[in-house]
Amino acid sequence: MSNLPDTGNTFSNPVIPGFHPDPSICRVGDDYYLACSSFEYFPGVPLFHSRDLVHWTQIGNALDRPSQLHLPRETPASGGIYAPTLRHHDGRFWLIVTNVSGDGNLLFTATDPAGPWSEPVRLPGVHGIDPDLAWDDDGTCWCTTAGVAQIRIDPHTGETLGTSHRLWSGTPGAKAPEAPHLHRIGDHWYLLIAEGGTERCHGVSIARGPTPTGPFEPCPANPILTHRGTDHPIQNTGHADLVQGPDGSWWMVLLGVRPGGGTPGWHVLGRETYLAPVTWTDGWPVVGEVSLTMPAPAWPLLPPAIAPEVRDDFDTSELAPHWVSLRHRSAEDCTTKERPGWLTLRARGGSLDEPDVTFVGRRQQHVACRVRTLLDAADGHGGLAVRLDEQHHYSVEVSSGQVRVRARIGPLSTIVASRPAPAGPVVLRAETEVVRAAHGPLAGPDTVTLGCEEPDGTFTALASLDGRYLSTEVAGGFTGRVLGMYASADSAHFDWFDYEPLDD
Ligand code: 6LW
Fold it and tell me: If residue 26 lies in a helix (H) or strand (E), which one and from where to where?
């Protein structure tokens, strides 16, 4: 254990913006790896790599085949894949997750975290979400779940050995003790948990004991992290994991949200991944407030040599790992091979209101951003969507010679604006703009403007809509906005897609 030297340098939070909750982290030599939840999206469990803990690059998705990730049509929004634990043990990477919409707890291994990951090992005897994996010195593997309960497992077969026992119920009076992670640090085993629920009361607490099975003594300073009851710009802080740097310093990754639009605020990007330094007092970890700017690690920061490209031209046969679909994706309904240099989507369900709409999107990662796509709808209907779930989305669609903006807000669905489509392929555009001044109860966190471009490139805005209705506070659930392309009848062809952060 060591406390942090102050280098005077800082880094910006969130370190992985956009809907990337429930981070779990491990370090192997100079490399850090991190996994997040993915819910109803396919492929699942995005995996990130970093060499400095601050700058992260997505290197893949652990669950990228139907045999690993089965999300039936009935999978509700925010169902599917919950809360991974990622560990490196015995020369391999181990990943354990819960598919709450079918297969329960599942374990995967890989020698390279970029993949391929193994077929799933099922754990029918492990009940409860948020499974953690920890190995004792003698190789005993403990699986600890929300509650907080623990059972010994054979991680190779998924067999449970013995019976489940309760480890800790968290702080008396606090709800939802969950997200356990067990770490051996010095002479103690530390049991890190989240408490209070994943909304404004969320927090992180910790207990320690002499063995991985306890008995556990709670930290007198619990919760060691919470922003509850504050007007801090980052809220809902919780669901954390710990990692040690090569210099002995300790770091916490956790989820948090950035509500906008006044009090209580609406967050639209989902739960994002934050990083915070950890110091130690009397053998207990201390985490102060998690801020948008924080003291940097003592080692050199290594921003990526090449800034992320604004445009994806769909010139490669495989889609980049940040593109996600809903519940499944098949080569028949999503391909760059039919018309080289174009992404072709073939409608399999109906509209964005349906769970099996053919959709390819990416997480909104900046509060203010612009997305554009060139759509050829000569063979069908398709469009550009700002999506939270099946019941909360805005879209601009080309169908039957018209460009239409539609808003779906809970039980209400309406065409907000329409006009004749320009001839030939059409550039569709959506952009979000932060609402600066609070205008009483009507202030949204942002506005979402949708429209199309004229042949000369000028933008015609068809509608500017209140972003609150595409926020988690309105829609509920565990995800955030995803921006993407879809086909609603026959085939829609997309030549390119731009994602451009704007100054907020
Ligand atoms: C996850 C639970 C939680 O399983 O939300 O914030 C649930 N924490 O630990 C879904 O992400």
Answer: strand 24-28
pLDDT per residue as tens digits for the range 133-142: 999 999 999 9
Residue of 19, 178, 237 to test ligand 1 pocket, by largest number of atoms within 8 Å of CB: 178
The CATH number of the structural domain formed by 311-501 is 2.60.120.200
Q: Is the pLDDT of residue 162 over 50?
A: yes
Domain range list for the chain? 10-295, 311-501
Which residues is 31 bridged to in the sheet? Answer: 28
What tens digit of pLDDT does each residue of 11-39 get? Answer: 999 999 999 999 999 999 999 999 999 99
Nearest CA to ligand 1 atom 6: 198
What SS3 string covers 33-46?
Answer: EEECCCECEECEEE
347-380 confidence digits (pLDDT tens):
998 899 999 999 999 999 999 999 999 999 999 9
Hey, which CATH number is domain 10-295, 3.30.559.10, 2.115.10.20, 2.60.40.10, 1.20.1050.10? Answer: 2.115.10.20
Task: Compute and round to an integer the Cα radius of gyration of the chain.
Answer: 23
DSSP secondary structure letters along 199-264: STT-EEEEEEESSTT---EE-TT-SSEE-TTS--SSEEEEEEEEEE-TTS-EEEEEEEE--BSSSS
Which amino acid appears at position 430 of this protein?
A
The residue whose CB lies within 8 Å of the most ligand 1 atoms, and thus the one to mutate among 99, 198, 199, 225, is 198
Catalytic residue among 22, 312, 397, 466: 22
Taking the C-alpha atoms of residue 199 and residue 202, their distance in angstroms, rounded to an integer, is 6
Give the nearest ligand 1 atom to 198 CA. 6
- Has residue 59 got a pLDDT over 90? yes
Distance 383 CA to ligand 1 centre (A): 32
ipTM: 0.96
How far lies 18's CA from each of 173, 192, 273, 366, 483, in Å? 31, 24, 8, 7, 11
CA of 494 to the centre of ligand 1 (A): 35
Instruction: Tell me the CA–centroid distance for residue 233 and ligand 1, in Å.
Output: 21
Both structure tokens of 194: 């989240």
Would you call 22 a catalytic residue per the annotation? yes
